[in-house]
Design a protein that fits this description.
248 residues, 30% strand, 5-stranded antiparallel sheet, OB fold (Dihydrolipoamide Acetyltransferase, E2P), alpha/beta, Rossmann fold, 5-stranded parallel sheet, 8 helices
Length: 248
Amino acid sequence: MTLRVVLADDEPLARKRLARLLREAGCEVLAELSGSAATLEWFASRGGGEALFLDIQMPGLTGLEVLAELQDPPPVVFVTAHVQYAVQAFEAAAVDYLLKPVTEDRLHKTLERLRHQQIPRRRGPELAALIPTPSPRFPVRAGEGFVFLDLRKVSHFEVEDEVVYAWSNERFRTSWTTLLEIEQAFPEEGLLKVHRHLLVRPQAILGFKPLLGGRGDITVTGGRVLPVSRAMTPKLKALLGLLSKEPG
């Protein structure tokens, strides 16, 4: 059975190679598209095909974002050089994926799934909610200039002498002077003020150790141990599911 397919990849060599492999496997390649804009334009003007081979990381919109824009896409096979993106796409959108460089054996398995209609067809609006929201970024000092740090790679913020530092394995100086400014900058992130000088990202907490006097210590990504105030300890334990339940 001849499959009529479309492929989209901003890397010319990868696009050309995949097109050759598809043709050698008996597919009819309807279009070889150079990126997200070309893909949206092609489907808006022509559409069709029994499968779309779609690169995830492209300039402009990502493959998931492109897919969410399409009203009636064919079954999609994601193609990527990064395994973490491939697994995420496969789990989130319930489609197949191929890792670059694509091998003939792995491609044939995918084509068999397509031929037996084992890859579900999803409409673009269904996928809109599956697109991960980009992580907020903020500037930190680097020499005489600035670089941007991904908030979700930060374990905690520490204020010292009216200077706020962000910890992401090492300490980076920010332009903020109080922890309140950070809480106001990222109200949706659920940052926790565990001590008067410490603001922690909850997802970065790896462990909790109770101490005498109703206090505690937490271990965060990067291995640093941080104190938790007596007032904050019960709230943190509740958040972590560590409060003991009374019998009866």
